[in-house]
Amino acid sequence: MGEIELISGYVIENADSLRQICGPNDCNIPYLEQLTGCRMAVKGNRIEFTQSPEGGDLIIRLLDRLVELSAVSDDISGQDILMEFKALDGRAEDGGSRVIMVGTRTICPKGVKQTQYVRAMESSQVIFAVGPAGTGKTFLATNWCLGELLSGRKNKIVITRPVVEAGENLGFLPGDLSQKLNPYLKPLYDSMEATLSPNTVKRLEESGQIEIAPLAYMRGRSLNNACVILDEAQNTTVGQMKMFLTRLGENSCAIITGDVTQTDLPHNQRSGLVDALERLEGVEGVSFIRFSGKDTVRSRIVQRIISAYEK
Predict the structure, then answer these.
(1) What CATH class is the domain 5-88?
(2) Helix axes 58-70 and 15-22, enclosed angle (nearest 10)
(3) Domain limits of the chain?
(4) Which of 12, 88, 224, 274 could pair covalently with 249 via S-S, beta carbons 3.0-4.6 A apart?
């Protein structure tokens, strides 16, 4: 084990950046120490740390990343630090971080996979994002589409998902069709309302610029100049997936998200998502982003749970 030596500290001139990186009551410092193997201390606007000689400039590169992140974020959590740490090795080949602009709000991808996902949405017409919960598949897709809508590059967002009943028939649920569907579509509203106010989302929906509907309502339509999201795509049948993909019209794009390990289809029915991943491999204009448990950004405990299930 190399001899521990004191490395010259890292100065952060911007007080707000320093506050975000350190966290409330310096709560992020122990986690930074755990990730980097350094002992750290905050003195004024300077973060001092120790590091073994073979550690190189790891902590400097990580702090550089966190300073960049602090300029476009409201706060920096342990999850943010973890994803920036993981992104260090892949940054050079991935071209650095991309951001999503939703009006005046900025959404930063966390880590290499999310950056690849944003780049795929910018460059491909059909994007498949597949992986476990908590990796940001639906959140990034929804907010990228909101950015396209609010900038005027697209006229409409259509968000859909298959309605698969799990032991309870929709006909027996109270309310009209909209009220019956709300539990199925709530995660999509949550993603939008994380960036825009509920009133703004409602106004865009009432004007027809945002449409959220079950997958069955897509049949027979042609969607032009639109961003179309198919969420929970593992619950589509092969026929439903083909029907959805053939709805795309001029200047439209489709983002398909799902987790092939969490299908609610009958055991004897093939998932349309699994079929499409095999059938469309190598098709021009179609991109595939495959997330894994290590890409989870929801929380460290969720990451550990997913890793346990993947064993």
Answers:
(1) alpha beta
(2) 110
(3) 5-88, 96-310
(4) 224
